[in-house]
């Protein structure tokens, strides 16, 4: 069992709280626990991503695969764009790509 620090900026104020969870659980379980906490605030109903160490946590992945430890800090942010790949622009003729 680990206590995780959660920092949410889904609305204009900063919400901080802690969640106790077994690190063998999936990210989806963590997301459900965070939703329970957020349902008591004005962030209710906003879809969000969870960030740790600069990466978005994937729902089906175990928390232990992200090397989380007790008192690690997670960040809750508004969901990023759901597009699978960013659009790439073709290089302009005559321009070097360096």
From TrEMBL:
Top-level taxon? Eukaryota
List each copy of the Ubiquitin-like domain by range.
4-83
Pfam families associated with the record: ubiquitin
InterPro entries referenced in this protein's UniProt entry, alphabetically: Ubiquitin-like_dom, Ubiquitin-like_domsf
User: What name goes with this protein?
Assistant: Ubiquitin-like domain-containing protein
For this protein's source organism, the top of the classification is: Eukaryota, Metazoa, Spiralia, Lophotrochozoa, Mollusca
